[in-house]
Write a structure and sequence with these properties.
2 domains, 3 helices, 86% helix
């Protein structure tokens, strides 16, 4: 405190400004560092959680479409329509297989 008492007002203001600049710089650097960490964690959460959930929802939609195609296949007597329904069933299940193979980490969500 004795050191500040002997300084002129100009030098005291410069000391206060320098301390403020150092404090603001430290706070800014810390904030930017934590923002980068948060951005990385958000990206990881998106890739590991949201994308598999979206794929699971698509699998549910495909399962319901498969059920509808199967029921229609049971009720339809037209051979051309039956062939078309069989092709649709095949394509739906191929998409389900592709979605499941793309998400090998899926059991960690369930």
């Amino acid at each position: 405190m004795r050191l500040l008492k002997n300084l002129t007002i100009t030098k005291k203001l410069l000391v206060i400004i320098l301390i403020s600049i150092i404090a603001l710089g430290t706070i800014g650097f810390t904030g930017l560092n934590y923002i980068q960490i948060m951005a990385q964690n958000t990206k990881e959460m998106y890739e590991k959680s949201l994308v598999p959930i979206t794929n699971m929802m698509q699998i549910r939609v495909n399962n319901r479409a498969s059920d509808a195609y199967t029921l229609e296949l049971l009720l339809t007597t037209d051979q051309a329509k039956n062939k078309e329904l069989n092709e649709q069933l095949t394509s739906v299940w191929e998409e389900v297989d592709n979605l499941l193979s793309a998400n090998l980490l899926l059991p960690s969500i369930i």
